[in-house]
Amino acid sequence: MARPPRLSFPGIALHIVQRGVDRQPCFREDSDYLVYLTFLGDLTVRTQCALHAYCLMTNHVHLLLTPAGEHSCAKLMRELGQRYVPYFNRRYGRTGTLWEGRFRSCLVDSARYVLVCHRYIELNPVRAGMVAAPPAYRWSSHAGNIGVQGNRLLTPHSEYLALGADLAYRQAAYRALFEQGDEPSFVDAVRDATNGGYALVGEELKAKLAQAGVRHLERVKPGPPRAKVTQDPIAHDMGLQGELLP
Question: How many domains, the chain?
Fold first, then answer.
């Protein structure tokens, strides 16, 4: 069965996950993380992708980006691999691929899910038991987003800017988003959409994307009956009417 085309649309955020082959480490030393971030910073400028959040785990990477063009994120990830994999192979005397197939991604509806994805990404080290709280993890965007450390890689999303009228207020409001800890329904929603290559969107954005010719917004199982779209647990918790796709 042919895999569906990857969803990407200019101006709409994309959550990307890329895993090491056979879950092997893709970062072994601090210098590896620094090299990856250097390449990433250069390529976000070259490919016109705004980076809002990231987390470099030992054997996988999370990125939240908004592309200026339809193929901007794909170009960024391709060129990032073309730079980082040869570096890693030379450094550790290895050959072959570093990543497990192609990266996974999902479209993220700005009004409802961008900050949810921020939390999902930056809480990864906490869920993995690596740190007690997000600020303690060095290789994520959290310290930059809460203002305890400068981070030139980051471009604030409009939803982040809407948290407050000035920088200090926005940073405090962002910090408060993490005080309640993780929520399983949020984690499952983002993980399922990303692994399936579909979208976290509400009806309004889904209609706009369909009008623009974007297809494969939702998962449809082969054969009758057509799979039902389930109520999004995030939207349910927030009292909204959004759907989880899938």
Answer: 1
